[in-house]
Amino acid sequence: MRALVALCLLSLLVSLPANAQGKQDFTLVNATGVEIHELYVSPHKSNDWEEDILGQDTLPDGDSVTIHFSPKERAKLWDLKVVDKGGNSIEWESLNLLEISKVTLHYKNGKAWADIE
Predict the structure, then answer these.
(1) What CATH code is carried by the domain that includes residue 54?
(2) Residue 13 has pLDDT above 70, yes or no
């Protein structure tokens, strides 16, 4: 009987969604019409932006990048900031990366928005 209970508990743990394990990995798609020169992703509760994820690279319009997090990361809500060549920046706040797998950024006629999947 104990073996059956242990097996049921193990099955339950294995079948939990990846979100329960703190997986915040997501794909960012640049559909803004401009090249992104800097990309920052920081926990919503943080007062500082983390390092530029792109480093020396850029994210051209039409390209995408997958952002990977440490399996130990537990923050649920994250802020995102992109900066173009001219230093213009746009921010999105409180993205629940435990429920998001893809963010597509758009910019047209002076307005920015993101499609969230």
Answers:
(1) 2.60.40.2890
(2) no
